[in-house]
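It is time I had a proper look at our fold encoding. Can you supply me with one protein entry, sequence and fold together? It will help me judge whether the discrete encoding reads sensibly. Leave the record below and I will have a look:
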Amino acid sequence: MSYQQIVKDTREKMDKSLHHLQDLLRAIRTSRASAALVEHIRVEYYGTPTPISQMAAISIPEPRQIVIKPFDASVLGELTKAIQKSDLGINPQSDGKILRLTMPPLSGDQRKKYAAKVKELAEETRVAMRNARRDQNKHAEAESKGGGLTEDEHKALQDEIQKVLKEYEEKVSGVLDKKTAEIMEV
């Protein structure tokens, strides 16, 4: 593996960790309604757990309301049960064709709990990135011992890997700050 390839792999691994964090954060509730809150909830559909996004149209007609219109109205009962079992804490209203989820305002305690969860996920992402750095440093060490890199190149590569880690840790902090601000917004 070459110097450039190791740096490229490091960036790819950090990118994957950052995107994973962003996906996880989409499902954490803020004071606004979002389709991401419900699209990954799985519903028993003909014996198969199926994400809501694959069996219904999800829309946001108002800032605090989610409307779920199943493609097959016969699954409305199962949809209702799945949403009630989820950790959203919302009781859906059904009119026989669609489900309406009205988002109650978050209490101060709920906001703090969600903000703590976001912080925890960000820290897990940083740990994953540090593990990627460790792995890439091992690759660099192996290349150096194998004769593919000089001692100076090895040291420069380790510095480059550390620089990439710092860059991505700053991105994680930015994502964390933005999501925390959304949660705390009244």
